[in-house]
Amino acid sequence: MDDRSARHHSLDDRSARRATDRQILALAVPALGALVAEPIFVLVDSAVVGHLGTTQLAGLSVASTLLLTVVGLCVFLAYATTASVARRLGAGQRTQALQAGVDGMWLAAGLGITLAAALWIAAPWAIGAMGADGAVAVHAISYLRWSTPGLPGMLVVLASTGVLRGLQDTRTPLWVAAGGAIANTVLNIALVYGAGMGIAGSGLGTALTQLGMAAVLAVVVVQGARKAGARLRPAAGGIWANARAGGPLLVRNLSLRLAILLTVFVATGLGAVNLAGYQVVNSVWGLAAFALDALAIAAQALIGHRLGAGLVTETRAILRRTLQWGVGAGALIGAIIAVGGWSFATLFTSDADVRVAITGAMVVAGVLMPLAGWTFVLDGVLIGAGDGRYLAWAGMATLVVYAPVALAVRSWAPDGPAGLIWLWIAFAGVFMLARALTTGLRARTDTWMVVGD
């Protein structure tokens, strides 16, 4: 190849990278706003409730973890729908794509009502199983029961957002999420302090916000389905197809949530100071994780669309570029977290011991954030490709690796803030590394790249 040809080839490569970057950012930037809505809800709840007292904040930590565990298990409603809709759209089947989305929303509504009722009834047992007792348990049960009415809304938000992502529309969920974040803040302050409801007002405010967001997103999807000629009535076959497609992702999500529950169990055993500190660090980690997941969402939509259209070479290019973005974004976010640990701590608590625990754990989380960026993007790529079965097995394998390490921290970690530091080394280090290895090895093969709708 002569110099002129080499320069031309280099320009073509740069042009292709820039085009890929524009596609990634066009999806990821709006998706970022929508993804961070839930962590922002938790951060607002933490800030509002944290000033009620340490036991209230500790109770919120346990209750919100249980609630987010249920929602996290059902995130397949978004992920599976994104992949399914994107593949059909790539294959030129817009009506079928929206039909799959509508069926997914019906599944979300029915599942949400059932789970809300079960969680309300089982609240005392579930809180006790997490190791909470006394005043912490009382506050945790109160928050959990007042927030469960919003669970159907949370799941419909997941499903409808998945439809819009599959259609490569991440702007609508962004605007809805922004409105929800504002409404949640106002309602929490008004109900907790204005109405004097305490921690119960925080749960109710979040529930009302989620129901309102679900209503807005459902209207948008229904309007699109009508224009495309898709039916709006629930269809048993379509609902079952969505449930079956999401089954492996449910198992994958179960492994992640069990790891998080195990982490909270360990934090509970390390005392109220470390448990309160864990709530704050976990809230910041969740915000950062969802920010990185914006890139994974872009990867899901683009990978699903390209595989649906049979474009294998473009699929590989998107894989490489989104991984580069994931690691780079993780490094930037991690630096902010590590340096700003003490400042974050002062926003949420006046307890000196809790502040020290938060600051140390923030440094660990920040240093390991690039690894998380790599892991989250690979997850998104494989989900977009519909490789849920492998992710299910890999998720359970990583849980088996993490569990003994986490339990060792509970048994042998030193007293005081150092215990929380060791817990975050186990979670953000060992657990994330195991996930990175299993997904990375899979991505090096061609097995996951199945083309067609």
In a few lines, what is going on in this structure?
Keywords: Cell membrane, Membrane, Transmembrane, Transmembrane helix, Transport. This protein has helices at residues 3-35, 37-50, 54-73, 76-90, 94-129, 134-147, 151-166, 171-194, 199-228, 236-269, 272-308, 312-339, 341-348, 352-367, 369-384, 388-412, 418-443.
Structural class designation: mainly alpha
Query: Got a strand count?
Result: 0
Instruction: Give the overall form.
Output: globular
The main β sheet shows up as:
none
Low-confidence stretches: 3-11
Task: Report helical residue fraction.
Answer: over 70%
Order of helices and strands: HHHHHHHHHHHHHHHHH
Overall radius of gyration: 22 Å
Q: β content, as a range?
A: under 5%
How many domains, in number, for the residues? 1
Per DSSP, the total helix count is 17
| Separation, N- and C-terminal Cα atoms | 39 Å
| Average pLDDT, all residues | 84
Q: Would you mind describing this structure in some detail?
A:
The chain has 453 residues and is mainly α. The chain has one domain. The protein contains 17 helices and no strands. The chain has helices at residues 3-35, 37-50, 54-73, 76-90, 94-129, 134-147, 151-166, 171-194, 199-228, 236-269, 272-308, 312-339, 341-348, 352-367, 369-384, 388-412, 418-443. The radius of gyration is 22 Å and the shape is globular. The two termini are 39 Å apart. Residues 3-11 have low confidence and may be disordered.
